Amino acid sequence: RKTRLFSANRRIIAGMLVNLFSSICIVFINKWIYVHYGFPNMTLTLVHFVVTWLGLYICQRMDIFAPKSLPIRKIVWLALSFCGFVAFTNLSLQNNSIGTYQLAKAMTTPVIILIQTTYYKKTFSTKIKLTLVPITFGVILNSYYDVRFNVLGTVFATLGVLVTSLYQVWVGAKQHELQVNSMQLLYYQAPLSSAFLLCIIPLFEPLTGDGGIFGPWSLPALVTVLFSGVVAFLVNLSIYWIIGNTSAVTYNMFGHFKFCITLTGGYLLFHDPLSLNQALGILCTLAGILSYTHFKLVEQEEGKSRLAQRP
After folding, report:
1. Which pTM was predicted?
2. Which pLDDT does position 55 carry in this prediction?
3. Pfam families per the record (predicted)?
């Protein structure tokens, strides 16, 4: 029994390590692609979708999961929000410093709570609601004092947060409604999102010449883009693995650790300037995120003990 527990823990740790390296890698690789190669944003998103679908196809051939037939009309909006979520977060990364990009993502939690309270009539305790104050204040403080603050970057970051929040709420709702796990859902969603992007790309990005998908890209640029696709697939797969084998709260806790490493890496690798006020904003947001997770854990434990006490 001890051996089984040890091997299960070893698998969870392995999954977390894969997620840690792939999640941090994807931010830096994408930023590198934008800064050094100027690769078109939506096309990079499309590469990620296609590689993710190919990866899932290989997984189902290896019997890692069984695909489930889903009606396309039920996942059209989910596929569209998936396009928006990846495209806008990539545009935010392209137009902002890594610090601002990471902190803007922290606003997803308050927006999800707002959507669930307004449209799904879900209730949250006062403690949970109060943790949103330092999170929001910290993000505003950091953005205001960011030397590279720009209106376009802020617009993309805001749209990214709104669409990501919608996507995360819908993923949970659709998994419940269609009785599928996230791999089965992604297996249908990725090709549908790719089809949507294929229709949109020619309207926003050049197809040939400099900066076009069929332009004269160097071999290192193409290898880096393909590598970022593989890393994006590993991110998606490891998220599913961690949540499936532990819980969403564990994944969030783990996310705070990655948040700190990514911020530090941004300042070291891309020499993003950091003022004292920005540092205070980051600490303020981090304090809010940690207290949110703490209260969430306490509430979950209380819920479990109440269930256990029932006759």
Report:
1. 0.74
2. 92
3. TPT
